[in-house]
């Protein structure tokens, strides 16, 4: 008698041969894929080329082949136009494909593509008030420069710091140095030296597109850029702190591990950078 291979979806049992391939996605089994998040301002996508370049690099680093980046670009543009959302968050990922669970994927597997376009909420009040952050051990893997679907360590860090009323986890490595936020780039400002400090690029952090823009506009704020590690102690004593993330741009940090920063409000240079970022966006889009 032939054995029946089955799958169970919630309380429903089906023949595995009739299963939608989406349920057999290697992204579900292993997080075997890479993703991007970008946004639009007033009906125009910002930094699309930069995001696609990073996406292509992530695909190459995890050895997912057979993806045409021009095709990805067209899918993004088509979906964005169809959605008709002026200020949108565009998320997309590609996984290695669908097949029965096995650690080493079959050669020639067709990659799967998924994309969403959703409306971004108005975050002006949050950006004006600033946010509280707390440190958490960096439990992530050693290739954080790849925008991988594997985000469990980020999620756990976020869950823990949210218990204390904080909105972002600032990750600290085994050497006691800050890497980045669980979902953001991290910056410190020394106002006396007029210096903007952030960790240098490397496998420990994501090559953030928003980080790149912040460094570009720093000169307009009369700030010198210093790429070096930051410790939690240095951050607590900092004149100004902020995070940078695609969907919110620059967000002031007004409390770090329970210590008020910049008298609990957005600092002078952080505000200048926010204004310069907005100018950059208006020129680009």
Structure description:
This protein is of the alpha+beta class and 285 residues long. It folds into 2 domains: 6-119, Aminotransferase class 4, branched-chain amino acid transferase, N-terminal domain (D-amino Acid Aminotransferase, Chain A, domain 1), CATH 3.30.470; 124-284, D-amino Acid Aminotransferase, Chain A, domain 2 (Alpha-Beta Barrel). It is 29% helix and 28% strand. The chain contains 8 helices and 15 strands. Strand 14 (249-256) and strand 15 (259-260) form a beta hairpin. The N and C termini lie far apart (64 Å).
**CATH hierarchy, class of the largest domain:** Alpha Beta
- Which range does the strand content fall in? 25-35%
Give the N-terminus to C-terminus distance in angstroms: 64 Å
Number of domains: 2
The profile of the biggest β sheet is: 9 strands, mixed
The CATH architecture of the largest domain comes to Alpha-Beta Barrel
The quaternary structure here is: single chain
Structural class: alpha+beta
Our count of helices gives 8
Q: Please give the share of residues in helix.
A: 25-40%
Mean pLDDT: 96
The helix-strand sequence is EEHEEHHEEHEHEEEEHEHEEEH
Q: What would you call the shape?
A: globular
